[in-house]
Amino acid sequence: MSGGEATEKPAPTSGGATHEPPEGASTTVTWNGVEYAATARWLVLRKEEKPTAEIFSVAYVGGSDRDRPVTFVFNGGPGASSAYLHVGAVGPQRIDVPGDGTMPAPPPRLVENEDSWLAFTDLVFVDPVGTGFSRMIEKEGTEGEASKDADPNAYFGTDRDLAAMSEFIGRWLSENGRWSSPVFLAGESYGGYRVGRLTRVLQESSGIGIAGSILISPALEFAGLAVGALGGGDYDVVPWVDVLPTMVLAAHHHGRSRAFAPGTPLAEVRRAAEEFATGDYAVFLTRGASMDVEERERVMVRLADLLGLALSFVTRMAGRVRVAPFTRELLRDEGKVIGRYDATVTTTDPFPDRDVFTGGDPTLTGIGPVFTAGVNRILRSEIGVDTDREYKLLNTDVVMNWKNDAASIYLQPIPGATDDFRYGMALNPHTRAFITHGRHDLQTPYFATDRLCNLMRLDPGTAERLTVHHFEGGHMFYAWTESRREFTAAIARFVTEAISR
Fold this sequence. Notes:
Elements: E1 2-6, E2 25-31, E3 34-47, E4 50-61, E5 70-74, H1 83-90, E6 93-95, E7 110-112, E8 122-127, E9 135-136, H2 158-175, E10 183-188, H3 190-205, E11 212-216, H4 238-253, H5 266-278, H6 280-287, H7 293-307, H8 311-316, H9 323-329, E12 336-338, E13 346-348, H10 368-383, H11 396-401, H12 418-427, E14 432-436, H13 446-455, H14 460-464, E15 466-468, H15 481-499
Parallel strand pairs: 5-8, 5-10, 10-11, 11-14, 14-15
Antiparallel strand pairs: 1-2, 2-3, 3-4, 4-8, 4-9, 6-7, 12-13
Helix pairs in contact: 1-10, 2-3, 3-12, 4-5, 4-13, 5-6
Keywords: Carboxypeptidase, Glycoprotein, Hydrolase, Protease, Signal
GO molecular function, one term: serine-type carboxypeptidase activity
Region (Disordered): 1-30
C-alpha cells in the first residue's frame, strides 16, 4: 500500500444545526496495484433528532462499483477500538510482526498487507463511542452558558451499543449510496458478541439484510467465559469444561503434558482433551463429594498429567485450576508466565516470589504500544487526520461502566448472543456465518463455541450455512503468519459463497 497525494477533505457529516463534527480526511492509496479511496471521518449519532455522539470510522472503498460487498469491522472489549483488526489482519497495511504470535519492538514497521480483505470486499473500520477518536458530544446551554454535561456513559450498554452500531451502518449505507451492496459484519471478542446479536437486530429493527456474519474469537455467552475472569466458581461446571482443552494444548505446546509422547499430533491431543473434558472431568465436576474416592483420585491424576502440573497442586485446587494460576504455574520453574490471550507466548515473571500476579497479560498489554503507534501513523501521517484527540486503543473506562440494558433486576446477567444469532440466521435463509477461534486462546476458548454450536439444534439447511473453523494461535491468531494467510483464504471463499446466487 502506498499513500497518494491527499485529496480534498470531505465535508463534515451533518449533525444538525447545533453541531458539526471534526473535519475528516481522505486520500487515495494503492494496494496490490489497485487504487482505493481511504476516508477517515466522524458520523454524528442522534437521539430525538439531537446530536449525542461522534462515531469515527475509516473506510477503504475501491472504484465506483455500488454492488461490491462492504464489511463493517469491529473489535471488542467492550472498550476496544477497531485498530487490532485494522492494522493487524484485515486492512491494506499491517504491522510487521515476527509471525509466531509475538510482537516486534516499538516503533513498529508498517508493510503492505498481502492478506488484506480488500481483494474481495470494501472495508469500514468502526470505533464505538469511547474508543479510538469516537466521543460523546457535550451539551451546551443557551446564551453561552454551559448546561449539565451529557452522560459520558450514555452508550456504554449492551442494547445502546447495538442501537448505535445499527444507526451508524444504516447511515453509512445511505450517505455512500451502498444499499445495493451485500453487507457483511466482522467482529472480534466482544465484537463477535456484537456481530452475533446484530445478525438479528440489524435485520429485525433496521431492515438491513446481512449477507454474512464473521465472528472472530467471540464471547458468545458470558456465563461460561474464561475461568478466572468472569466465571468458574466452585459450583459451576461449564466454564471449567470449556477452557480445559486449551490448557491441555498449552501444556503440550510447552512440552509439559505428561499424557502424550513427544511428537504426538495436535489433532490427537485435542481430541483426547475434549473427550476427557466432556467425559470423566464433567462427571467429576458434577458429582463432587458423591464420587467414589478411588475414581476421584484417578480423575485427578489424569488431569494433572494432561495439564503438566504437580498432582499436589491440582489436588489443592480441588481439580479446578483457574486460568491465572495456570499461566504462572506451568513454567514456574523457568521463571516464566504464559499468555492468557496466546498461551504459546511467554514472558519473564516479574514477581516470582508473590502468590498473586496482578500485572497485565503479556499478550494483550504488551502489544498496546505497537498497535497504538501503528494506527496513529496510518491515520495521522498517511490518511491525514488532523486532530489533537488521543486515539484510545483500549479504554478501560468503557469496560468498567458497561451495563446490561436488558436487566430487570440487579442480578440478571448480560444476555448471551447465541439466541439472537440463531434467530437472525432463521430470519434470512440466505445469511451465512463464519465463527473462528485461535486454539491457544485462554480468554475466549474455542471449545465454548464448539459446545454452543452443538447445542443450537440447527436444522440441516441452517447448519449448512454455518462454518466453524479454528486456527493455530491465540485470541489474535492472525499474528501467526500461516494462520493469517489461511484465515484470509477461508474468508475469501466464505464471501464468494455468500454472494453467489
